[in-house]
Amino acid sequence: MTKFLFICKRNHSYGSEKGTFHGLVNSATFIAEFLNKRGIESEVIQVTDGDDIDRVVQEKNPQVVVIEALWATPAKMQDLVTMPEHRARLWIVRVHSKPAFLALEGKAMKWITSYPDEVVICPNTRGLTADLQDMGTDAMLLPNVYTPRGFDDYAYNKVQSDSELNIACFGALRPLKNHLAQAIASIKFANKVGLPMTFHINSTSGNSPNISVLENLQALFEKSKHNLSVHAWRRHPEFVKLVQTMDMGLQVSLSESFNLVAADFVTNRIPVLVSDEIDWLPSTVKVSASSNSDQIAQMIEYVWRYYHPTLDRECRKALDSYNNHATAAWWKIAKRLT
C-alpha cells in the first residue's frame, strides 16, 4: 500500500514549457525519495486536472495524499474528502509561495480559506505558516527536502575560466524572479573584470508577463558584447550537468521560498549569490532583494572571488542543516502511519 502519494498538475505554470520537468515535480520527487529510503512507500504522479485525482488515488490507495501547489479547487477537494473511500486518508495541500507570489494568483487566499477542514494547508516556509495560523487557518509547516539521487556524487569543483564567464539565472521567467536586474548586474561585473560573459536562463512559453521578461532580456543583450543563452527545461540529472558548466549561479529573487536551483549550485560547489528571501543560506552569499544592479554586481564579484573554500563550506553546511530540519518534519508525519 502506498503511504504517500504526491500529485502534481501537468502543465502547471511553476516551470516548464511542457509541464514535465518543472520544479514542483522535482520538489515532490526529492521528498518521495527521502521517504522511500526510510521504508515509507511514496510516489509522485502527474495528472491532467482535478477530475483525475479521484482516479489515481483509488488506484494507488495512499494513506496520505499531497497536492503540490494551489490548483485543485475547494469544491473538488470537498467532493473528494467526503467520498466514503477517501475519508480515512490524510489530505494535504502544499503551498510553495510567499505572499508576494500568492498576490499574483488571484484566487490563492480565497482557496486557502475555503478548503474543507479535512484538508491540511502546508506552506513550505515558516513565515507563511505563521501568517496563516494568525488568520485562523490550521496550517502546518512542511518544508522542501533536497536529497537528489547520488547526493555525494554531485559534488563538483569547476575550475574558473580566465577567458570567459558563464553566469546562470535559471528558473521560471516570472517578474518577481528579478532576471533583468541580475542580467544588468552580470554585465557590469563582466565589464569590470574584462571578460566576455554569457547569461544563461531557462526558456518560457507562459503568459504575457513571462514573455515580457524574456523579450526585455533579449533586447538587453541584442547590442551587447555579451551573450544571452536560453536553455530548454530538462530532467534534473541533465540540468545538474548544465549547472556544472557554470561559473556562478544567481537567484536574487524579489520573493522566494526554498529555491531548488540554489541548492543545485551549492551541492555542485558552484558559487551562488541569492537574495535575503532565501533564508536557509548564510548571509555571506546574500544581497537584499531590493538591491540595485550596482550592489548586486559588487556582491557577484565578492562571491566569485572568495567562494572557495570558505563560502562553499558555509553554504553546504547550511543546506545540510536545512535538510535535517525538513526531513524531521516529514518523518514526524510518516511515523504516525507505521
Key terms for this structure?
338 residues, Rossmann fold, 2 domains, 6-stranded parallel sheet, 5-stranded parallel sheet, 11 strands, globular
Summarize the structure.
By secondary structure, this protein is an alpha/beta fold.
Q: Sheet bearing the most strands, described?
A: 6 strands, parallel
Indicate the CATH class of the largest domain.
Alpha Beta
CATH topology of the largest domain: Rossmann fold
Q: Which blocks of ≥5 consecutive residues have pLDDT under 50?
A: 14-19
Our count of domains comes out at 2
Please state how the strands of the largest beta sheet are arranged side by side.
8-7-6-9-10-11
Output the structural class: alpha/beta
Portion in strands = 15-25%
Architecture (CATH level 2) name of the largest domain: 3-Layer(aba) Sandwich
Shape summary? globular
Secondary structure: helix percent:
40-55%
Number of helices: 11
Mean pLDDT: 91
In whole angstroms, the N-to-C terminal distance is 12 Å
Radius of gyration: 20 Å
Order of helices and strands: EHEHEHEHHEHEHEHEHEHEEH
Per CATH, the superfamily of the largest domain is: Glycogen Phosphorylase B
Would you count the extended β strands for me? Answer: 11
